Amino acid sequence: QVQLVESGGGLVQAGGSLRLSCAASTNIFSINTMGWYRQAPGKQRELVATITRGGSTNYADSVKGRFTISRDNAKNTVYLQMNSLKPEDTAVYYCHPEYTEYWGQGTQVTVSS
After folding, report:
1. What is the pLDDT of residues 27-82, one digit of tens each?
2. Would you say 88 and 42 are in contact if contact means Cβ atoms under 8 Å apart?
3. What is the end-to-end Cα distance of the chain in Å, rounded?
4. Maximum mean pLDDT: which of 70-74, 81-85, 103-107
5. What sign does the CA torsion over 82, 88, 9, 57 have?
6. For 29, phi and psi rounded to 5 degrees?
7. Collapsing DSSP states into helix, strand and coil, what is residue 47?
């Protein structure tokens, strides 16, 4: 059974920082590229960042230079460090092993202006 547990969301003022974590089942984490996605109210879910098992990263243009994705393979955990947050970053953030149907429950990030 695949488990993905996100944490670290919350309410922060614009310009602030948050660090999201996603703990994943070993069977998924060990073989997959991991991604963070987000969905704002009334909008489609969108890619935020991905990281391969080897550490290669990819970012949406809207977060480049502000967000950093990383992973700890020993802990089966992927992180998203979010700096210089903007109100438009407000969304539910989801952890997702690429090329699978599995999604975490999501963690709410709210950035106030």
Report:
1. 766 778 999 999 999 999 999 999 998 899 999 999 999 999 999 988 889 999 99
2. no
3. 40
4. 81-85
5. negative
6. -65, -35
7. strand
Average pLDDT over the chain, rounded to an integer: 94
d(CA 40, CA 50): 19
What does the block give as tokens for 108? 């709410």
Residue count of the chain, please give it: 113
**Angle at alpha carbon of residue 36, lines to 35 and 40, rounded to 5°:** 145
Question: What is the rounded CA–CA span in Å between residue 86 and residue 80?
Answer: 15
Is residue 9 within 8 Å of 18, Cβ to Cβ? Answer: yes
How is residue 107 written in tokens? 């963690």
Distance, CA of 65 to CA of 61 (rounded, Å): 9
CA distance 86 to 22: 22
Sheet holding 10-13, edge to edge: 10-13, 107-112, 91-97, 34-39, 46-51, 57-59
